[in-house]
Protein: Cytochrome c-type biogenesis protein
Amino acid sequence: MRVLLLCLVSLPAWSAIDVYQFDNSQQEDRFHRLTEELRCPKCQNQSISASDADIAKDMRARVHRMILEGKSDDEIVGYFVDRYGNFVTYRPPVNRGTLILWLGPLLLFVGGALVIILLLKRASGRADTDEGDDQP
Structure:
């Protein structure tokens, strides 16, 4: 029973590790940088370098192949954006379709700050009227 449990616990360690060969260290550095910059479409908030999803493995293999073919970083990222949309990048371009992504956090912050300010004013107004009722 213990052996079976030990085998099940160590199962993730048996998973295959992708090994890519490069012509030089610059290509390897580009590969690591690009796989950190591209987001896994399935995992949503993981880079393709950190994801174990099949689609991320395919994307890593494609990045490797494109680097060896001599494609530029912009061409590689453009390929994945064309295929999966702007979501695949952690820094989508500012355009009409992504404006809410860029302005959304700011709008939420400003809206939250306004709500807090209004609640504090209302609470201080109640405190002032309560103090005025206590005096003869």
